[in-house]
Design brief:
By secondary structure, the protein is mostly beta strands. 6% of the residues lie in helices and 40% in strands.
Length: 169
């Protein structure tokens, strides 16, 4: 899976990027991007099938975590309230205390904790005739405050622009 560097942007620049990706009016106040941090990498991959899927992962070697969001289509029942493209839903949103869990494109880590809530957005534009994106941007915060694992942080932010979407392995 390809990794992308997180870019530092102002809220106005972030709004322009989201607009360029075809973001609707619901994204008029996007979350600002975080400054790039050493040890943090993002990746995205997709699976095509009866349900198409897109997975976004954030590997944080400094915190010792892997945060993952999995989207499915066609679907409209999300496990957390993150704005996603039409006919897509958030199927899974988790964090684990093992950064290497991000090396596995699909499936849940044994020690993964599910998010209890979430805010923000995931946006992309697709090429004509294709439902799967070639790039995806994520600006979301996942809530883990109700998690039973003592190592889980209260929340985790995912902020990345134009992640290249590869095929999941």
């Amino acid at each position: 899976m390809a990794a992308a560097t997180v870019l530092k942007r102002t809220a106005k620049e972030a709004a322009a990027c989201l607009a360029a990706l075809g973001c609707a009016a619901a994204c008029s106040n996007p979350l600002p991007l975080s400054a790039s941090r050493p040890g943090v990498t993002y990746a995205a991959c997709s699976l095509v099938g009866a349900y198409d899927r897109v997975f976004i992962s954030k590997r944080d070697d400094r915190k010792g975590t892997c945060t993952r969001i999995g989207l499915a289509s066609p679907s409209n029942e999300s496990v957390v309230l993150i704005s996603v493209p039409a006919d897509w839903s958030v199927e899974v949103a988790t964090i684990s205390n093992e950064p290497s869990d991000c090396e596995f494109s699909t499936g849940l880590a044994v020690n993964a904790v599910s998010a209890t809530g979430g805010t923000g957005s995931i946006v992309w534009s697709t090429q004509a005739g294709f439902a799967i994106p070639t790039q995806v941007s994520v600006h979301a915060t996942l809530d883990f405050s109700g998690a039973s694992a003592s190592w889980a942080p209260p929340s985790d932010e995912l902020n990345a622009e134009r992640l290249t979407v590869t095929s999941c392995r």
